[in-house]
Design goal:
Elements lengths: L2 E6 L2 E6 L2 H4 L20 H6 L12 H15 L2 H25 L5 E2 H18 L5 H9 L15 H20 L2 H4 L5 H31 L10 H7 L21 H31 L2 H15 L9 H4 L3 H13 L5 E5 L4 E3 L2 E3 L4 E5 H4 L42 H16 L2 E5 L4 E4 L3 E5 L1 E6 L4
Parallel strand pairs: 2-7
Antiparallel strand pairs: 1-2, 3-11, 4-7, 5-6, 8-11, 9-10
Helix pairs in contact: 4-5, 4-16, 5-11, 7-9, 7-11, 9-11, 11-14, 11-16, 12-14
Amino acid sequence: MVISEFYMGSQRFILLSNDDLIQNIMKPVIDGSFHNRISDDHEGFKDAGLLNNGLAFNNNYNEWQYYRKFFTKVMMSSSFIKQSVIVVQNSFLEMEKYWEKLGEDTVLEFNHWSKRYFFDTIFVTTTNKPAYALANYYNKITPNEKSSLPESILKESDMFVESIDALTHSIGYFFFVPRIIRNFPGINRYTQYFKDRNNWLENNVCNIIKSKREEIDKTPIDQKLKSDMLTMYLTVNIERDVTKRIADDLHDKPMSDKSIAANFREALAGGIDTSSNTMCFLINLLENNPKVKQRMIEEIERVLGKDPNSLFTSEDLSKLEYVEAIIKEVSRVNSLIPINIKKNTEPEVIGGYRWSKGTIFILDIDRIQNHESYWKDPEIFNPDRFMDKNNPDSKNQIYMFGGGLRKCPGRNLAMVEIKATLAMLYRKYDIQLMGPLKESIQTIRKCDELKVKLKKRKNL
């Protein structure tokens, strides 16, 4: 079935499993009727405190457009990308230091390392402050040999990572599960867990905002403030505005702490989940496709050089075309976001049927990206489908970062970070899988376990 209907409680959903059916829905049309994802009165999101905050589930178009400017100005800028490449390389060097202490015979739970590595990276790039998530994780798994840590703006980084994870998974839970089921004995403990984690996260994000504001207040007026994302949020429309007047006629006041917290929280969640899970799926597929892996290593050495410790720039990474093709193919095979949700604000005709205003559509991205109608031999892992511009497959849509006006504003950053990490990992290490990758699908496709051993490559 390319169009089907199902209910969760009294809520009706229309499932679209054909790429032709979703093309108009995913077009970046400013005045289109598919901008929103949820209803203005969505009970579950109201209960979770997720409705009309930040970007992802904000139905107020003017507010959404305003907040989007911050993400675009920061995360899409060339200067930010260049600085992020430096941050990624520094974080990887730190992670390597802990791996060397553990030794080559240690089985690494790569999914845990990956989450903390990308958390450290996104935290520095958005706040100009270290999170020390990698260091805290190393101390957790080596209680007899702790690494000393300086004072940090962030407390309890492990709980922070866990709470970001809970926030992501709570989205699907509060969207699909009706209240009567959420409050059912036995199930209500999951409801309370998600609420507790989200409240903990909100309180700690507010503490970070408070600390950053105090830092800004203590900075001499003649000293230039750094233009990180959090500073931009805190200074917009005040005397020390570092946004270069990103505000408009509708937004001439400072941003509220509630709005800052929601947007900052989304930036952190997006910076961790996409990159960390994609890295795990990349490693798993590369280790099961040695010819693809070898060709990738050859490109990395040709572009970046054979010195595994040499530094590189964002311009260097842009030349890794086969690496990018691999990332696209992994995102096709393992759709990180298996479904996309859209709601029409005007009546629409889709698939020959007229749909009334307020219909909720579930776009089956997972099926579309793995269907033989759109892809030749979709079950085969083949990055070459994205290397040849004349290949019909290369023209097909990859929804790794969503689509339409709500396409992920951090997509350039994520691609650069994943490319850089893949290059640093494979130009220095041979990787041995210590068991099958374990995954689960909730709001996103998540790597629950990937155990590996790393050994320095013999030819180095």
